[in-house]
Amino acid sequence: MHPFLSDLRRLGLYLLGWTPVVTLLTLGLGRGAAPLAAALVFGPLGFVYAFIGLSAWYVCRIAPIDRGLSPRGVGTLVVATALASAVWIIAGDMWVSLLDSMTPALQAPALFASRRLPLFVIGALLFWLAVALHYLLIAFDASRAAERRALELSLLARDAELRALRAQIDPHFLFNSLHSISALTVADPAAARRMCLLLADFLRDTLRLGASARIPLADEFRLADRFLEIERVRLGPRLQVTRDTDPSAAACLVPPLLLQPLVENAVVHGIDQLVEGGTIHIAAARAGSALTITLENPCDPDRPRRTGVGLGLDLLRQRVITQFGADGDVRVDDRPERFRVEVRIPCAS
Questions:
Q1: Distance CA 21, CA 17 (A)
Q2: Would 341 be classed as within a structural domain?
Q3: CB neighbours of 321 closer than 8 A, spacing ≥ 6?
Q4: Of the residues 126, 149, 172, which one is the last residue of a structural domain?
């Protein structure tokens, strides 16, 4: 169906835009005739042609010009132009016959007969104008459809990349957790069993919340607490945690498992390497539409220095950049005795 006929608002705007054409047509063809007769004969016929001109949309679909008009396409346009003018003339004969039966004094048939040839030529010109406008309309719709497809493909590609990054993060975490359980099975079987139960609860929560694209920061903190509880089975009082959270930041929506690589890195590469353990400081603050999450932990000053930030943090950085672009950032401050990570993302609510 023609896009104008499927939307009454568009059709109304189209007829409103056609009104000046009808006015010029009436004034031009009615020159030398009585104004009332000219208005009654040519005014309604002008709006009739507005609907005849809509048929150009179907002709343009049959004879597209995206690769140039073929001889067959040109022939189709010529035949359609002649038919459109002929239909207009036939509609005019029917209309003036009706007018003559109602108001013979107007002499509508004589007025129309003297303008039949100019009317046919004007109809052909108007049809070619309608063809040009419909080609522009089709090109505009094609351009919008291409942009929409490009956006959909971009979103699908980004979603696939995010899923791939999540698929790498989850096994990385499980490997470290299972390695910790393995280390406890000999030294403390009861603790290993408790750690397995806590891990099962943690995985259940991650499966439930991980199905969502975004979760409240408060829920993300609860997931982090679950993880730290698992690690506390192994490390005991050596692992301490403090948290400073802006109340307005707790409602911000964040990607699930955003904090997990941070706390995992703080435990495995920080607290676990210190005989006396240490305290992990977690803070979250909101400034306007920006959310900043920082995590700081002590670390062994004599530890072997890594050339990069590690797999977990590298995957986190890729995930933030992929999902938020220039609005997301992960900054790492690696000092001899302190390790600090700052994550900045937009605060959605």
A1: 8
A2: yes
A3: 328, 329, 330
A4: 149
Query: Which residues of the chain fall short of a pLDDT of 70?
Result: 67, 153-173, 176, 210-211, 305-312
Tokens standing for residue 271: 């607290």
138, 237: one domain? no
- 124 lies in the same domain as 217: no
Q: Which range marks the domain in which residue 294 is found?
A: 188-346
With tokens 């995010």, the residue in question is: 162
Q: Looking at the structure, do residues 316 and 201 belong to the same domain, yes or no? A: yes
What φ, ψ does residue 3 adopt, rounded to 5°? -60, -25
User: pLDDT of 50-64, one tens digit each?
Assistant: 999 999 888 888 888
- Both 81 and 15 in a single domain? yes
Cα gap 192→339, rounded to integer Å: 29
Q: What are phi and psi of 33, to 5 degrees?
A: -110, 170
For the chain, the straight-line distance linking the first and the last C-alpha, in angstroms and rounded, comes to 41
Under DSSP, is residue 330 helix (H, G, I), strand (E, B) or coil? strand
Q: How many domains does the chain have?
A: 2
Closest listed residue to residue 282, CA positions, set 224, 331, 214, 206:
224
Express as a percent the part of the chain with pLDDT over 90.
Answer: 27
pLDDT in tens, 67-94: 677 788 888 889 999 999 999 999 999 9
